């Protein structure tokens, strides 16, 4: 049964367009280039994850922070600063990220156009403002959203502030995303409903446990399935 007249708040990265898979491809290329003589890829990945986790707290998100993390990983493994040539090589590996190429999740554009006829659509994404705006511009999806918010982090206070700013009725407000940590958990803590659409390449730092019995979370497998419910 469809719900009418809802407020639908959408995540962007890995909900509307592919994001983390691009980073994963760069990481694979980085490991191949690195060819560490003693550590296996899972061991190097654990080191990189720790570095990314620390940098996210201090520097936020985006391709620039990612390149910084790769350079710091190289320095930690080699126990010396990265050379100018090594820094250039890392930038070359990540050229697709820097270009900001966009690949929409299948069905997103048509689904948003349909949903926008019956519901109020908002966009809430985190990351570097300029980088997220470039991706949004490239996606050509901005026209579907009444309001767009780019924030450095997505904790419960962000959802509470959004609800106050737009006078949202929480029982008819839904956060839609792929991240348990940034989309589903804090939205539920703020009193909103949520739609969880998992992505197989969701960043490990966005993983978190969700209550499987939470009736306020609708679990779907594909973005167009939203049309069956809204």
Task: Give a written overview of the molecule.
Helix 7 links the parallel strand 2 (120-126) and strand 3 (147-151). It is elongated and about 60 Å long. It has a 6-stranded parallel sheet, sandwiched between helices. It has helices at 20-34, 41-59, 63-78, 84-93, 95-99, 108-115, 129-139, 156-165, 180-189; strands spanning 7-10, 120-126, 147-151, 173-177, 193-196, 217-219. The longest helix has 19 residues, at 41-59. The termini are close together. The chain is of the alpha/beta class and 230 residues long.
Keyphrases for this structure?
elongated, 230 residues, alpha/beta, six-stranded parallel beta sheet, single chain, 12% strand
Draw up the topology in text:
Blueprint: E1 7-10, H1 20-34, H2 41-59, H3 63-78, H4 84-93, H5 95-99, H6 108-115, E2 120-126, H7 129-139, E3 147-151, H8 156-165, E4 173-177, H9 180-189, E5 193-196, E6 217-219
Helix pairs in contact: 1-3, 2-3, 8-9
């Amino acid at each position: 049964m469809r719900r009418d007249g809802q407020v639908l708040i959408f995540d962007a990265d890995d909900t509307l367009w592919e994001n983390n898979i691009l980073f994963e491809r760069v990481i694979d290329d980085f490991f191949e280039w690195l060819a560490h003589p003693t550590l296996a890829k899972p061991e190097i990945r654990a080191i990189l994850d720790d570095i990314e986790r620390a940098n996210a707290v201090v520097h936020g998100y985006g391709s620039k922070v990612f390149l910084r993390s790769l350079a710091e990983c190289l320095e930690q493994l080699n126990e010396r600063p990265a050379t100018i040539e090594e820094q250039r090589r890392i930038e070359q590996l990540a050229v697709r990220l820097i270009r900001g190429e966009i690949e929409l999740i299948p069905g997103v554009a048509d689904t948003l156009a349909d949903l926008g006829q019956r519901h109020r659509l908002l966009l809430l994404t985190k990351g570097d403002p300029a980088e997220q705006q470039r991706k949004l511009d490239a996606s050509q999806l901005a026209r579907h959203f009444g309001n767009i918010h780019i924030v450095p982090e997505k904790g419960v206070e962000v959802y509470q502030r959004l609800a106050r700013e737009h006078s949202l009725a929480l029982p008819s407000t839904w956060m839609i995303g792929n991240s348990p940590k940034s989309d589903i958990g804090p939205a539920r803590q703020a009193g909103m409903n949520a739609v969880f659409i998992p992505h197989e390449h969701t960043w490990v730092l966005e993983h978190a446990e969700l209550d499987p019995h939470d009736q306020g979370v609708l679990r779907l497998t594909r973005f167009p399935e939203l049309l069956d419910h809204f």
